[in-house]
Amino acid sequence: MTTDTTGLLTTPFDATSTAADVVSGLDLSGRRVVVTGGASGIGTETVRALAAAGAEVTIGARRPAPAEDVAAALRSDTGNDGIRVAPLELGDPASIQAFVSAWDGPLHALVNNAGVMAVQERTLVGGRELQFATNHLGHFALALGLHGALAAAGGARIVSVSSSGHLRCPVVFDDLDFAFRDYDPFAAYGQSKTANVLFAVEAARRWADDGIVANALMPGGIFTNLQRHVGGDDYIEQAKARFAAAGVTFKTPEQGAATSVLLAASPHVEGVTGRYFDDCAEASVVHERTPTTLAGVAPYALDPANAQRLWETSLGLTGLG
What we know:
By secondary structure, the protein is α/β, with parallel strands linked by helices. The chain has one domain (about 1-220, about 250-320): NAD(P)-binding Rossmann-like Domain (Rossmann fold), CATH 3.40.50.720. The chain contains 12 helices and 12 strands. The protein has an 8-stranded mixed beta sheet with strand order 5-4-3-6-9-10-11-12, sandwiched between helices. A two-stranded antiparallel ribbon has the order 1-2. Helix 2 (about 40-50) packs parallel to helix 3 (about 65-80), helix 4 packs parallel to helix 5 and helix 7 (about 185-205) packs across helix 12 (about 305-320). It is globular, with a radius of gyration of 18 Å. The model has no long low-confidence stretch (mean pLDDT about 95).
């Protein structure tokens, strides 16, 4: 672990590194990992890299049948038979509880990767706005349910996949579900992604004595099935042109998974906790965003008071308090 001239943590990897680069030379045999949403996009590349290094990986999947096909292909590609699929619907408390109840033994890393982005119409699940419920509350309940397994591992890691979208909106505690605000798909997504960062900040504080570290990250500008709600291929082509004009470079899914894998397994970040990373390095705090800002973390996303308030609020909303 090293730091740059501003005191931010750096690693030998950067925006061009792939997940395979990050695990090169590592032996993760004996480590058990859960990757939510591991059957598509950067989730699949996260699973691939960790399994190639010897980890036993469980994919938490909303649609188990197609996920089984992905897992079979990954087992063949990596030569690792320890890749399995378990049903997991993050918007359904019963599904989360079933996943938790079925888990046995220690858990060395939980990669909260699954997510939904920019649902165009305000949608509620269990009385909560869909993106906040899925991206944050579902992962919150999952982590709490697996806390014992994480603590039992000794030195476990939680990886919270956020987004530069968090720069669009803080957590608005007085109106989490857009009951009073005009619903905006990207603001709702941004709020949920800010929650992902705040969860890591507070988990780092609360669970430090259990040997658990927690960090959040921005994977980079990557086009995957995540964009299906905002126009799919048409949106992607328009976004590519807009960002290219601003000099922004996009990543492949293999590159997008690199920071997740770094935080889940690399010795370069051993003991690091409560931070936000992008491009395989700790991100700087930014105080203003532009329409093409993809780097940096908003101060409200790292604020300890916000993190503690969100945790307490989430306990109430999930009934886990």
